[in-house]
Design a protein that fits this description.
By secondary structure, the chain is an alpha+beta fold. 58% of the residues lie in helices and 18% in strands. The chain contains six helices and seven strands, in the order H-E-E-H-E-E-E-E-E-H-H-H-H. Strands 5-4-3-6-7 form a five-stranded antiparallel β-sheet. Strands 1-2 form a two-stranded antiparallel sheet. Helix 3 packs parallel to helix 6. The radius of gyration is 31 Å and the shape is elongated.
Length: 259
Amino acid sequence: MDENKDIIQNDNESSVEEKLLELKKRVAEIKGTHNGKVTYGEKKDKRPAIIFLSIAFALFCACIGLFVWNIIRMRRYESDYVKMYGTVVDVKSHHSSDSGTYYYLVITYTYDGKEYTFTDDVGRREFGRDDIGKVAQIYVNPQHPAQAVVVMSSGSIAIGYSCCFCFFCFFYAFGMNFLLGLFGTSFLKRLCFVWGLEILLGIALFLFPWLGFPNSTFGGVFSRVDGSIGIIVVCGLVFLAMCADGAIMHYVRRYERGR
């Protein structure tokens, strides 16, 4: 009789343990965590991450393509044109209701004993009368001496790769954070593979236009890169997102320790 009671009691205990184990598994599935990693059940849907990362990869390729094209175009001035100096003699202004007033420098220079004058095709927001008479670095086409440009590293190409970089940062951050969340994420991983990587790429796009004119001053080249402000703003936003991410993780850990 006692043996039967022991057998029944053991069966009941094993049944309770099995139910408790099954209950723990269900709770882990509901919470979406298992051993500290996000599982979202047994099936992990990677499609959103793949879609966003694919778009980010396409934008990154477009950004690099336009960037290299711009560097090659800049290098063409260095190799095919003659670098010399001209003098600012006047300024022309152009006003539009959409973009405001832009000022264009009128520069004169002498090549092979003959004097030429041209107007810079890149406008500037500000101009002072003290700028007249200053020396400007220019590039002259030796085949057609009347064709000249101020140190040129800007234009629609630069705006194009800047815009591609901006959208790349958005899609990459969203897709990569989602992908890391599927396999267990941490602030250190996001710092290395998301925020830090985007900031480094932004700094590279910020500095590398100088490669187009290695013999010129960095300020003279970079000041004419359209879209540079956009790159700086995006890097600043990524930095703020990184700081917010770190602050949130810090307070979450403090809250968990206090429980």
